[in-house]
């Protein structure tokens, strides 16, 4: 929006920014009414001014080779950052979970929930993340990213396990056990006298 | 005066506000007396009174207006009835109990005025005792083996036995079999020799006659054995006697100095009458009697023997025969008759034939109970109908549309207020409620009367008297078997209940089927079977949803009722087993069924366990409830592993007692498998003796006994487990694969005697179980099952804590707030009956004793019902308010956003 506004017209452009969605004309009229000191530049042609010292409109010639190399390194670096993100979180998470304790109360449960949900969410949105990972090592990075998230999930599950929230015991499935079918029937009692 | 009235009214208000909202809301109690043995009518300055001394050792005053109990005193229980005589003299009620304990009760409140123990110190010389109470004195007339009578007079009101007179009369002709009686201050005996029958008598309260008997000639017949002398009921204070010789009834007046000047004489002799009773109008005496030619009519006979009136009693047929009647002449000239009938009922009638009230006192001796679901309402029935006839898809569719149109129609009618008139059942509330909480209680009493009682309020709906059906004799006393063959759940079919009893003379089995909702008999004549050894309800129903009854007779032949269901049993005969415990032979026999060519199915012995009669005696058998539902198959331990329950449905508990000179009494408890006869567990308690109470459910056995050494009641608890793995999770068989269960045992102390014990039961067995314990004091306490847990540890560990166990303390608590019948004590609790309701949380508990008490019990609290005091209006208001607020804010927010946008 601000691109066609000359740098001199700073005040006006601020006004434009402020009324972001309004059309220029309406805004101008309203501005003209409202602000005494506002100058309307749109009707007048801006004067040609000399560039300030050190300012050049022509682009700087950077060696194409070097720039390309740097880009590549940066992409790989950024991709590694992205890929290693979950793994880096792991020690911190482990520490938090250790501090939370094994008692079942609202805070530990919330923490465990967060720990579990975040990597699962991340795993769900891998497609979007992978689009950002580029470069030669992308395959390895993707793998590391997935493994890191899985490790986070594993950590959460381990916490659940140590809190006793996982249905891994026979007692957790007891309620689904059907009663035994009776194969024989017996009746009886004390004989009545005559 | 006015201020006093105001104060009184204020106090009344405060008193009635105490806990009133809960009393009688879910419970009711009906009080009974038992069959009247002695009835006295009396008049005091407070009006008329009816006094009853019953065979259950209860003495009570009854309101003559409505038959309600004005006061009741329950004396101690005895196997035989304890009242010997009852007098009402001079505004004082005097009862003679257990051979000489004399109580005097205030007629209005029933408070004890005085009492004295005049029981003989030694019974050796005493043959028989007779009593008489005059205005001042109480006389005890003892017939002794010293060939005479010894008379003792005691002044009334003296706590200590102060003798006002004691004399003896020589009468060598008196013996144990002599028939004697007292009335109007005269003691009279029948004396017979070859020449004829005379009545020998003397006056008790006149000094002049202390020398000897005077005699009055009655008859020339020599059959003394059939002669009897009795006072006339209702004329106890008048010198009148009835002498019965064969079928002749003589009425005698024994007073000397009447206006006519004649001495003691026979007033009249009549035949074809029985049960003489009389009333006095002040100057005349009238005698009433039952006409033997027409048992439903009563004769009023004057002093000279003329029949003044012959009135029909119009006694309802469900009362049976009259056992005793007492007439009363009311001031307005009408005659009232109080009758005691064969069914133990007490009724007051105004002649001719109008029942004023009746009391069903037979309900004090209930032998069999069952709860029957009430039938569904008409609209629900139409829905049921929809599924009943499923011949074709089109038909079903048509049924469905029709029933839904009907429902719509009834809804519209309901809204518009044009409801069809309620049916009789609906008027009586005899339709199923939403949670199936109200049931029909079918009760069978010892005299053979069957009652239908609404569980909602305890009112009797129907009564049927079956005098021919006598109780079966078992180890625990008389027993009647009641089976619900078909409940009301199978809509077009009516429900069927069957009563099994015994024929009095031959001992043959009798079966009567009836509709438990209406009391209508399906067979007028009882079905007769050979003498019954055992009867059970079969687990599988026939095509009409009728569960057959399986009966094994003494010859071990199988009978199936109805006979049309025999093929069902024949198909399953290889998986059906019957065990019979014979107390006299000391055996438990197991039978399986084989076809015999001529007799159909016959039980063949498969196994036998012998308990030598000279060392052990079988006391009782406790089996699990048929069709018991167990929701949880195991128990979760502290380490979150499962201890699987040993749920052998064929298991039964057997208790035997033995006596030897060293260990004295001991009690043995065995757990036997009813299919194989294998003994799975035993327990032996030294110096333990009955009374025994046992309950057996799920994988538990709980029993109580008396510890003779420590003189206390103990409760033992036994639990059976399969272990941490289940051998077969789908089917249970006793026959294949022997797996011995793990057994946990523990003993506890109960701090009071136990009269009855029963576990609660719910529809699906999810709710935890409580044990209801009835105490002889009349309270019924609810005890959580985990107090009786045999796994309660001596030292508390974290794991035991995790499992929810309570540390072992031998004494079981009796918490006052766990007493389900609060202050409504039930005397002589004999049994507690529990029944599930449609609500999983709630169980009906029916306490049977002298009274009947019904309440609801929720062992895990009412988790499936909103609380009584749940504020529906508040919740609705808040909800509606929030909804309105939601829409209002939404609207406001939209407007604000629009305004914002326009700025």
From TrEMBL, chain A:
It is a multi-pass membrane protein. Coiled coil: none annotated. The keyword Endoplasmic reticulum applies. It comes from the Eukaryota. Pfam families: EMC4 (PF06417). It is found in: Endoplasmic reticulum membrane. The chain crosses the membrane at residues 95-118. The keyword Membrane applies. GO terms for cellular component: endoplasmic reticulum membrane. Keywords: Endoplasmic reticulum, Membrane, Transmembrane, Transmembrane helix. Component of the ER membrane protein complex (EMC). Belongs to the EMC4 family. This is ER membrane protein complex subunit 4. The lineage of its organism: Eukaryota, Metazoa, Ecdysozoa, Arthropoda, Crustacea.
Automatic annotation (TrEMBL), chain B:
Residues 18-125 form the EMC1 first beta-propeller domain. It is a single-pass type I membrane protein. Residues 698-902 form the ER membrane protein complex subunit 1 C-terminal domain. Residues 1-17 form the signal peptide. GO terms for cellular component: EMC complex. Belongs to the EMC1 family. PANTHER family: ER MEMBRANE PROTEIN COMPLEX SUBUNIT 1. Component of the ER membrane protein complex (EMC). This is ER membrane protein complex subunit 1.
């Amino acid at each position: 929006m601000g691109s066609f506004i000359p740098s001199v017209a700073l005040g006006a452009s601020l006004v434009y920014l402020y009324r972001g969605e309004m059309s220029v004309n309406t805004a101008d009229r309203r501005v003209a009414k409202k602000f005494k000191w506002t100058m309307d530049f749109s009707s007048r042609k801006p004067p040609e001014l000399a560039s300030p010292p050190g300012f050049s409109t022509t682009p700087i010639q950077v060696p194409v080779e070097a720039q390309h190399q740097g880009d590549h390194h940066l992409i790989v670096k950024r991709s590694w950052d992205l890929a290693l993100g979950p793994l880096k979180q792991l020690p911190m998470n482990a520490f938090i979970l250790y501090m939370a304790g094994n008692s079942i109360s609202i805070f530990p449960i919330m923490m465990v929930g967060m720990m579990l949900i975040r990597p699962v969410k991340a795993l769900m949105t891998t497609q979007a993340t992978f689009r950002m990972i580029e470069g030669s090592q992308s395959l390895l990075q993707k793998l590391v990213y997935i493994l890191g998230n899985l490790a986070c999930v594993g950590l959460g599950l381990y916490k659940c396990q140590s809190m006793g929230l996982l249905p891994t015991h026979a007692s957790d499935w007891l309620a689904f056990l059907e009663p035994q079918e009776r194969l024989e029937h017996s009746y009886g009692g004390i004989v009545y006298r005559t | 005066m006015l201020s006093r009235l105001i104060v009184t009214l204020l106090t009344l208000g405060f008193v009635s506000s105490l806990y009133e909202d809960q009393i009688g809301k879910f419970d009711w109690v009906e009080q009974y007396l038992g069959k009247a043995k002695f009835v006295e009518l009396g008049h005091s300055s407070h009006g008329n009174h009816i006094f009853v001394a019953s065979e259950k050792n209860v003495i009570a005053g009854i309101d003559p207006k409505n038959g309600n109990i004005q006061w009741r005193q329950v004396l101690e229980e005895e196997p035989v009835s304890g009242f010997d005589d009852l007098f009402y003299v001079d505004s004082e009620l005097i009862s003679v109990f257990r051979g000489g304990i004399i109580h005097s009760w205030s007629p209005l409140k029933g408070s004890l005025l005085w009492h004295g123990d005049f029981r003989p110190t030694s019974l050796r010389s005493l043959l028989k005792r007779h009593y008489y109470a005059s205005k001042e004195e109480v006389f005890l007339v003892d017939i002794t083996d010293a060939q005479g009578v010894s008379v003792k007079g005691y002044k009334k009101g003296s706590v200590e036995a102060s003798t006002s007179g004691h004399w003896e009369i020589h009468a060598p002709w008196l013996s144990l079999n002599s028939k004697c009686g007292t009335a109007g201050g005269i003691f009279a005996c029948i004396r017979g020799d070859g020449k004829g029958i005379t009545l020998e008598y003397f006056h008790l309260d006149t000094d002049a006659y202390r020398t000897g008997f005077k005699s009055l000639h009655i008859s020339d017949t020599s059959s003394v054995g059939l002669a009897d002398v009795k006072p006339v009921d209702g004329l106890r204070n008048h010198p009148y006697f009835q002498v019965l010789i064969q079928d002749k009834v003589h009425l005698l007046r024994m007073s000397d100095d009447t206006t006519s000047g004649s001495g003691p004489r026979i007033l009249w002799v009549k035949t074809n009458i029985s049960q003489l009773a009389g009333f006095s109008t002040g100057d005349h005496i009238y005698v009433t009697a039952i006409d033997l030619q027409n048992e439903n009519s009563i004769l009023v006979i004057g002093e000279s023997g003329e029949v003044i009136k012959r009135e029909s009693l119009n006694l309802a047929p469900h009362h049976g025969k009259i056992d005793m009647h007492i007439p009363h002449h009311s001031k307005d000239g009408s005659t009232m008759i109080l009758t005691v009938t064969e069914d133990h009922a007490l009724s007051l009638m105004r002649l001719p034939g109008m029942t004023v009230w009746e009391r069903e006192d037979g309900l004090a001796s209930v032998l069999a109970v069952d709860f029957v679901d009430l039938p569904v309402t008409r609209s629900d029935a139409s829905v049921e109908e929809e599924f009943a006839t499923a011949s074709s898809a089109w038909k079903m569719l048509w049924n469905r549309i029709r029933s839904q149109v009907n429902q719509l129609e009834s809804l519209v009618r309901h809204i518009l207020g044009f409801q069809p008139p309620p049916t009789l059942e609906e008027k009586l509330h005899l339709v199923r409620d939403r949670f199936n909480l109200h049931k029909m209680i079918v009760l069978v009493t010892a005299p053979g009367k069957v009652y239908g009682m609404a569980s909602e309020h305890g009112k009797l709906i129907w009564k049927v008297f079956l005098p021919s059906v006598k109780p079966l004799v078992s180890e625990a006393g008389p027993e009647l078997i009641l089976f619900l063959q078909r409940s009301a759940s199978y809509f077009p079919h009516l429900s069927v209940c069957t009563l099994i009893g015994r024929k009095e003379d031959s001992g043959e089995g009798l079966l009567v089927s009836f509709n438990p909702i209406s009391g209508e008999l399906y067979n007028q004549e009882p079905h007769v079977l050979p003498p019954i050894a055992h009867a059970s309800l079969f687990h599988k129903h026939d095509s009409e949803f009728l569960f057959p009854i399986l009966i094994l007779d003494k010859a071990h032949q199988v009978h199936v009722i109805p006979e049309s269901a025999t093929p069902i049993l024949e198909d399953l005969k290889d998986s059906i087993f019957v065990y019979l415990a014979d107390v006299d032979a000391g055996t438990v026999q197991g039978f399986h069924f084989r076809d015999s060519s001529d007799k159909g199915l016959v039980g063949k012995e498969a196994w036998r366990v012998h308990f030598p009669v000279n060392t052990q005696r079988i006391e009782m058998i406790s089996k699990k409830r048929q069709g018991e539902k167990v929701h949880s198959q195991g128990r979760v331990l502290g380490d979150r592993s499962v201890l699987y329950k040993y749920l052998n449905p064929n298991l039964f508990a057997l208790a035997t007692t033995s006596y030897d000179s060293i260990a004295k009494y001991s009690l043995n408890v065995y757990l036997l498998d009813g299919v194989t006869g294998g003994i799975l567990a035993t327990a032996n308690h030294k110096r333990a003796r009955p009374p025994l109470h046992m309950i057996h459910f799920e994988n538990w056995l709980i029993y109580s006994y008396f510890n003779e050494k420590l003189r206390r009641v103990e409760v033992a608890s036994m639990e059976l487990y399969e272990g941490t793995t289940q051998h077969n999770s789908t089917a249970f068989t006793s026959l294949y694969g022997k797996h011995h269960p793990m057994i946990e045992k523990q003993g506890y102390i109960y701090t009071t005697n136990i009269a009855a014990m029963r576990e609660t039961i719910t529809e699906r067995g999810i709710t935890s179980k409580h044990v209801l314990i009835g105490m002889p004091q009349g309270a019924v306490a609810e005890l959580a099952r985990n107090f009786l847990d045999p796994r309660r540890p001596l030292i508390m560990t974290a794991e035991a804590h995790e499992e929810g166990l309570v540390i072992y303390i031998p004494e079981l608590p009796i918490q006052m707030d766990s007493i389900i019948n609060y202050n409504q004590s039930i005397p002589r609790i004999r049994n507690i009956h529990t029944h599930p309701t449609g609500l999983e949380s709630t169980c009906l508990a029916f306490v049977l004793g002298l009274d009947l008490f019904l309440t609801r019990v929720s062992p895990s609290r009412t988790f499936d019902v909103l609380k009584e005091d749940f504020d529906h209006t508040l919740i609705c208001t808040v909800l509606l308010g929030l909804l309105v607020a939601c829409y209002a804010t939404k609207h406001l927010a939209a407007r604000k956003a629009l305004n914002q946008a326009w700025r």
